[in-house]
Amino acid sequence: MKVRIIGAGAVGAVVGWKLYKHADLAFIVDEERKERYSGGLAVNGEVIDFRFLTPSEADTADLLIFAVKNFSLEDAADEASPFVGENTVILSLLNGIEAEEKLSERFGAEKVLYGFITDLSSVHDGTETTCFSGGGNIVFSEKDNTRSARVEEIAALFDEAGQRYTIPENIMHEKWWKFMLNTCFNTLSAILIADYAAISSNSDFIRAVRLEAREVQTVAKKEGVIITQDDIEEMIRRVTALQDHGKTSMLQDVLSHRETENRYFAGAVSRLGKKHSVETPISDFLSILLEAKRRVLSV
């Protein structure tokens, strides 16, 4: 299978690390990144001589994986567009709940699978990525949850490569569950500068998580998705099980003085609250507080 990945950070590099021996794999990059990555990318100390293709060198992908941040999606879609053919399948691993709709508008809904990655604890710095969790778990499906031939083909590739995956019964529920996780844990960890080890031992952190989770639960219901209390407890269990010194992606962005996905997490809860005339004071406050934190650290 001809797999092309756009995004070579904490997510893309780890997925590429899993797949490169089992697929015709290359990363889509611009000219500057191609030069920067010419010595290869290191994952857990192993330097891998990945292939890098610019839009001018495009071929047609069988599977195109988006592994960028939400604020980079539009530019990434421009760069990836020459790689999209009539039968290309597009899989987004972006956080949040909006990427697939945007990709469907750009490339056609018939090309787009719904997905995300979870259980991934990794730290990215320059051309080096350290993964503490042995790779993540890719959750993906057709939007209507049918077990299509292309879903089966991708599952077979993941089986061969040892890439963990789940094909859920209800992909929209699972995406909202991950959105809740990102909104609660990424945002709070970035504000408090807490890695997974610090999170797992902090009962007050978990109290704050539950408060924010209730707001996500409320707006999800307005959007037609039911998040249960069991879903909230499972989210907490999964994250607190990561007791290493890995960091959430948003914490890494704050510490590196990079733009964050704040407006796609707590900011999105606030926007949906306004859409449905639901008050979201905790999300409003966390969104503002994170921006204040980012500015303090950048001084």
TrEMBL record:
Q: Name one GO biological process term.
A: pantothenate biosynthetic process
Enumerate the spans annotated as Ketopantoate reductase C-terminal domain: 170-293
Q: What class of enzyme is it?
A: oxidoreductase
- Name the Pfam families on file: ApbA, ApbA_C
Q: What is its EC number?
A: 1.1.1.169
Ranges for domain Ketopantoate reductase N-terminal:
5-143
Q: Which GO terms describe its molecular function?
A: 2-dehydropantoate 2-reductase activity
Matches recorded under InterPro entries: 6-PGluconate_DH-like_C_sf, 6PGD_dom2, ApbA, KPA_reductase, KPR-Related, KPR_N, NAD(P)-bd_dom_sf
* Keywords assigned by UniProt, alphabetized: NADP, Oxidoreductase, Pantothenate biosynthesis
Instruction: Name the pathway.
Output: Cofactor biosynthesis; (R)-pantothenate biosynthesis; (R)-pantoate from 3-methyl-2-oxobutanoate: step 2/2
| Coiled coil region boundaries | none
The UniProt entry's GO CC annotations, sorted and at most eight, read: cytoplasm
- The UniProt record lists the keyword Oxidoreductase: yes
Spell out the Gene3D superfamilies in the cross-references. Answer: N-(1-d-carboxylethyl)-l-norvaline Dehydrogenase, domain 2, NAD(P)-binding Rossmann-like Domain
Enumerate the catalysed reactions. Answer: (R)-pantoate + NADP(+) = 2-dehydropantoate + NADPH + H(+)
Q: Return the similarity comment.
A: Belongs to the ketopantoate reductase family.
Q: Which PANTHER family match?
A: 2-DEHYDROPANTOATE 2-REDUCTASE, PROBABLE 2-DEHYDROPANTOATE 2-REDUCTASE
- Tell me, in a sentence or two, what this protein's role is: Catalyzes the NADPH-dependent reduction of ketopantoate into pantoic acid.
What is the recorded name of this protein? Answer: 2-dehydropantoate 2-reductase
Q: Which species does this protein come from?
A: Candidatus Ornithospirochaeta stercoravium
